[in-house]
Design brief:
The chain is an alpha/beta fold and 387 residues long. The chain folds into 2 domains: 115 residues; 196 residues, HAD superfamily/HAD-like (Rossmann fold). Strands 1, 2, 3, 4, 5, 6, 7, 8 and 9 form a 9-stranded mixed beta sheet that branches. Strands 14-13-10-15-16-17 form a 6-stranded parallel beta sheet, with helices on both faces. The protein has a two-stranded antiparallel ribbon with strand order 11-12. The chain is globular and about 55 Å long. About 7% of the residues have low confidence.
Length: 387
């Protein structure tokens, strides 16, 4: 979720004074919670603190050592009276005007934005009989990010399961806080897909409608996209290739659970969600450059970490996906098999924007403008990206 055109409404939301709203609501003490501040001293988890585990990858390095990315968010639930109404006001949503269904959806999705991030927390995890494995303590945004080494035998057990099935782990002392690691082979095909307006109808270019679709309406899938991604993965498996899906989005981590439900409910293939860190209200909608940096950083990390894999990059024209993907392909010309852009702006493939963006694209890297998943599938079948 991002403002593709960095509209005035989006800029206004980012500039809106959170402290002024808190003061007006008589809840100035919630300022540190909304901004993701916490204590600086290292300490263990308290009973009223919770952990959200973000999806990560499990892979073998060039030296054969098994590695894993562990990303955790530690938080307390915001209990101050009026916090939910304050958040609705911040978004420009009038709760009294919502239908019962809209109010229920808002309550479900807004709760992830009403958290007090906890700094300096010591954590460990346990996985397949290994552990406890100590992690880096949480930062001011409540995030612990650690790359850990694991016994090589765990890799073989991970691949005893069907491909695309993640490896589970749990936070020590919090068995209900479970995370998932997606095994990634050194060779194969990675399908990297954006979410908003690529596989989910979000209307990113209209900030008011984007917020409504995010908080008040059931998530709606772009026709044919789930079938396309699923058939590409299945065709690759039949051809003997390891095909993995990565969902790379500028949506904030607070939408992890709703997006996981959306993907599962609409039949999308399983895959690692790579969402944007945004544990403060002021970064709910990022500027265009924030979204670009997030996506480029993840693409760069994937392509450097897995030089033997090929990548199919799928996005839309409502954001900077064409420019981001072309830049990634120019940096890694041997790894990008194809770029497919869903048209949501009505621009022809010959438009100046595309000519400029694709000018640096390697000659061997094709790109296509598509309307929906059926067209994407037809192109993929014609050119056999999974081969």
């Amino acid at each position: 979720m991002s403002a593709g055109d960095d509209s005035a409404a989006a800029q206004g939301l980012r500039r809106r004074s959170l402290f002024a709203l808190l003061s007006a609501a008589g809840a100035a003490g919630a300022a540190s919670a909304a901004l993701g501040l916490g204590g600086a001293q290292a300490s263990p988890l308290k009973r009223d603190e919770h952990v959200l585990a973000l999806p990560g990858l499990l892979w073998q390095g060039a030296d054969g050592q098994l590695q894993a990315d562990i990303e955790l968010w530690v938080y307390e639930n915001e209990r101050r009276p009026g916090a939910r109404s304050l958040f609705a006001r911040y978004l420009g949503i009038e709760l009294s005007q919502l239908s019962a269904r809209e109010r229920a959806l808002f309550e479900t999705r807004a709760r992830w934005f009403l958290k007090d991030s906890e700094r300096g927390k010591r954590l460990s995890i346990e996985m397949d009989g290994q552990g406890p494995l100590s992690l880096n303590r949480t930062d001011r945004a409540g995030r612990s990010s650690t790359q850990i080494s694991l016994p090589s035998a765990l890799w073989n057990r991970a691949w005893e399961r069907a491909p695309a099935q993640p490896q589970a782990y749990s936070v020590t002392g919090r068995s209900q806080s479970q995370g998932w690691l997606w095994p990634m082979a050194a060779q194969g095909l990675s399908i990297v897909s954006d979410i908003d307006d690529t596989i989910k109808i979000s209307q990113v270019r209209d900030t008011s409608q984007l917020l409504r679709n995010t908080f008040l309406a059931p998530f709606e899938a772009v026709p044919g996209m789930a079938a396309w991604l699923g058939q590409m993965q299945a065709a690759g498996a039949q051809a003997g290739r390891n095909v993995e899906v990565h969902y790379l989005s500028s949506s904030p981590v607070q939408l992890l659970e709703p997006l996981q439900d959306f993907l599962q409910g609409h039949g999308f293939p399983g895959g690692c969600l790579l969402l944007r860190e945004s544990t403060s209200w002021s970064r709910l909608i990022p500027g265009a450059q924030d979204g670009e940096r997030h996506k480029l950083a993840h693409l760069q990390r994937l392509m450097v970490r897995f030089p033997g894999r090929r990548f199919v990059l799928i996005g839309d024209s409502g954001e900077a996906d064409p420019e981001i993907y072309a830049q990634a392909a120019s940096r890694h010309p041997q790894q990008v098999a194809a770029i497919l852009i869903r048209d949501v702006t009505g621009e022809a493939a010959s438009a100046a924007r595309y000519r400029q963006a694709m000018a640096a694209l390697p000659a061997a890297t094709p790109w296509y403008l598509i309307e929906d998943g059926a067209q994407g599938l037809a192109i993929a079948q014609q050119h056999g990206f999974w081969l």
